[in-house]
Write a structure and sequence with these properties.
heterodimer, A: 333 residues, mainly beta, outer membrane lipoprotein receptor (LolB), chain A, 2 domains, 5 helices, 14% helix, globular, B: 194 residues, mainly alpha, two-stranded antiparallel sheet
C-alpha cells in the first residue's frame, strides 16, 4: 500500500496553506495519512459517495466494441438520490430516478416504463451484506494515483478470492469517494466492461431544472411492473447459492412489458456481484439455441419439472450454472 | 424447372444456373436478358438462387452488409463449404461458365466460412463461444458460456430478445454490480426501445 501518492500530496499541500478544505471529504481525512484507510473504510466511503455526492458529467461506457456516452446529473436532496441520465448516442432516451423509482422515457415509442429499483441499486448490496463480509470474498489492494477526467484518483483493486466471481478495478476521487472509473475484470485481469467519466464536476450545486425530462410525456403510454414479496420456500422452491451470496429479495412479478404469466425472482448478492434466479412454472421449454453472455452477465437456463429456471447475473458462467443446478422443487408449504 | 430447396443454398438445374450465370455476367442477348428478368419475377426458386449469388458477392465485398441482409448466410456458406467438392484447378475451371461460378461459389463459401469464424463475431459484436465442457446443451438445459470468463477483447453474441426481459428484470432488482447506479441504464443505450 502506498503511503503517499500525488493525490495525497495535494491534500497535504492544502493543509499546509491553512485550509481544512481537503479534510472535508470522507476519504480526505486519511489522505495525507497516506491512503491509510482500511479496506472497509474505502468501501464505506465509496458507498456513501454513491448515494450522497452531487455531480454532473459525461460517462463513457465500453463493453467489447460497444461504446456509449451518456450525460448524467446526480443530486442528493437530503433524503433520497435524484438522478437524470440522457443517452448521447443511439436512440434518444432518458432515465430519471427519484429515490427508488426510475422513469425510463422512450420518446420514439412515446412510452414511459416505471421501475421500482430499491435502495440496493446504489452500489448495491454493500449496505445489506455488510462491508466486512464483502472482504471475505474479495481482497482489496490500494494502488497508485491515476488521473480520470482530469482528476487524480486512487486506484483500488478488488480481487476475488475464488473463481466464482469477477474482479474489479476502481478509480476513486479521494475527496468525495466518488467512483470515476470502474472496470470489471475476468480471468487474467482481462477487462470485460468499463464505465468512466470523461468529464465531471463534483460537489457543485445542481440546478433542479436539470433533473426534469427533455420531453413532455403527456399522452404517452405508462407501463409499470408491479411485484410483491414472496417466500420461495413457502412455494416449495429451494435454491442453494454459492458461498458468500445471500438472498436480497424474493418477488413475484411480470417479466415483460405486456401482461403475462407471473415469474418468481430471487436476487442474491455477495455485496458486489448480483444474481437473479427466475422460476416460471408452466413456461414453455427453454429455447434450444445457446444462450449468451453480455459483458459481465452470464445466463443459464434449464428446466425443473414443468418450470423454466433462468439464472442471470454478473458472475462467471460456471457460477450461474451452479446456481441453476441447485434449484429444486421440494414441496409447497 | 427442377429445383430443390435444402437447408443450404438453393439448388438449381444446371442449365438454369448456366443462364443465370451468363445473365449476371451481362453476356446474354437482349431477348434472353429480358426473358431471364421475366422468369426472375415469377420463379421464386430462381430468384432465391439469384439472391444467394448476390449475397455471396456481398460477403466477399462487405461481410457486414451480407450479415445484415441475411443472418443465415454464415450457416449457409459454412454448410456449402463442407458440401461442395473442391474444384479449384486448371482442369476444373475449363469448360462451362457454370463450373467457373461453382468454383467462385467454393471460394465464396471459403471466404464466408472464414468470415463466420473470424470476422463476423467482431463485425457484428457476436462472439461464438467455442464448444467446451462448460458449454452444455442437453435435452433440458442450455448454457450461455465461455469456459471461465468472456474474453474481454471479444464481443458477445447477437442480442437474444428472449433474454432481454430477464436482463431487464435483473437490472431492476438485481442492481448494477459494482458499477454506479446509473450504469444500469447507461448499459441499455444499445438496446431497442421498449
Amino acid at each position: 500500500m502506498r503511503s503517499a501518492g500525488v493525490g495525497c500530496r495535494r491534500w497535504l499541500g492544502a493543509s499546509l496553506l491553512g485550509t481544512v478544505f481537503c479534510l472535508a471529504g470522507p476519504v480526505a481525512q486519511a489522505a495525507d495519512a497516506g491512503a491509510a484507510l482500511s479496506p472497509v473504510e474505502w468501501l464505506r466511503a465509496i458507498r456513501t459517495a454513491a448515494q450522497r455526492a452531487n455531480y454532473t458529467g459525461t460517462i463513457v461506457y465500453q463493453r467489447g466494441d460497444e461504446v456509449h456516452s451518456s450525460h448524467i446529473v446526480h443530486f442528493f436532496d437530503g433524503t433520497a438520490p435524484r438522478e437524470r441520465v440522457l443517452t448521447l448516442d443511439g436512440r434518444p432516451r432518458e432515465f430519471i430516478r427519484h429515490g427508488d423509482e426510475v422513469q425510463c422515457l422512450y420518446p420514439k415509442a412515446r412510452r414511459v416504463v416505471i421501475e421500482q429499483t430499491g435502495p440496493r441499486t446504489t452500489f448495491p448490496a454493500l449496505g445489506q451484506i455488510g462491508l466486512s463480509r464483502v472482504l471475505d470474498h474479495y481482497s482489496l489492494t490500494v494502488g497508485d494515483v491515476e488521473r480520470v477526467a482530469g482528476i487524480e484518483c486512487r486506484v483500488l483493486e478488488l480481487a476475488p478470492r475464488d473463481v466464482l466471481r469477477y474482479g474489479y478495478r476502481l478509480w476513486v476521487e479521494p475527496q468525495s469517494g466518488l467512483l470515476l472509473k470502474v472496470q470489471v475484470l475476468g480471468a487474467d485481469d482481462a477487462m470485460i466492461e468499463q464505465i468512466a467519466f470523461s468529464d465531471v464536476r463534483i460537489g457543485e450545486t445542481v440546478d433542479k431544472a436539470e433533473l426534469k425530462p427533455s420531453w413532455s410525456t403527456a399522452g404517452w403510454q405508462v407501463v409499470r411492473h408491479p411485484s410483491h414479496q414472496i417466500e420461495l420456500s413457502r412455494q416449495g422452491w429451494s435454491i442453494t447459492a454459492p458461498e458468500g451470496f445471500r438472498v436480497l429479495t424474493e418477488v413475484e412479478r411480470n417479466l415483460g412489458d405486456e401482461p403475462g404469466p407471473a415469474a418468481l425472482q430471487a436476487v442474491y448478492s455477495d455485496g458486489l456481484a448480483t444474481v437473479s434466479v427466475f422460476i416460471e412454472p408452466g413456461a414453455a421449454p427453454a429455447d434450444p439455441a445457446p444462450l449468451q453472455h453480455r459483458g459481465p452477465w452470464s445466463a443459464f437456463m434449464r428446466r425443473v419439472g414443468d418450470a423454466r429456471v433462468t439464472v442471470v447475473g454478473e458472475v462467471p458462467p460456471t457460477t450461474a450454472q451452479s446456481i441453476a443446478d441447485s434449484v429444486r422443487f421440494v414441496a409447497a408449504h | 424447372m427442377s429445383t430443390t430447396q435444402g437447408a443450404g443454398k438453393p439448388v438449381q438445374a444446371e442449365a438454369d444456373l448456366e443462364l443465370l450465370s451468363a445473365w449476371l455476367d451481362g453476356e446474354l442477348e437482349q431477348g434472353q436478358y429480358s426473358a431471364m428478368l421475366d422468369r426472375l419475377k415469377v420463379d421464386p426458386a430462381l430468384r432465391a438462387q439469384f439472391e444467394w449469388f448476390n449475397l455471396a458477392g456481398d460477403a466477399l465485398r462487405s461481410h457486414e452488409v451480407a450479415a445484415c441482409h441475411h443472418p443465415a448466410l454464415v450457416g449457409q456458406v459454412s454448410r456449402a463449404l463442407q458440401a461442395e467438392p473442391v474444384r479449384i484447378g486448371p482442369g476444373a475451371l475449363s469448360g462451362s461458365r457454370l463450373r467457373r461460378h461453382i468454383a467462385t461459389g467454393v471460394t465464396v463459401a471459403a471466404a464466408a466460412g472464414m468470415l463466420a469464424v473470424v470476422a463476423l463475431p467482431q463485425l457484428r459484436g457476436s462472439y461464438v463461444a467455442p464448444a467446451s465442457p462448460a458449454s452444455v446443451a442437453s435435452e433440458n438445459r442450455t448454457v450461455a458460456t465461455v469456459a471461465a470468463a468472456p474474453p474481454a477483447a471479444k464481443a458477445e453474441p447477437a442480442r437474444s430478445p428472449q433474454l432481454d426481459a430477464y436482463f431487464r428484470a435483473h437490472r431492476e432488482l438485481g442492481a448494477t454490480g459494482v458499477m454506479p447506479s446509473a450504469a444500469a441504464y447507461i448499459r441499455m443505450a444499445g438496446e431497442p426501445d421498449r
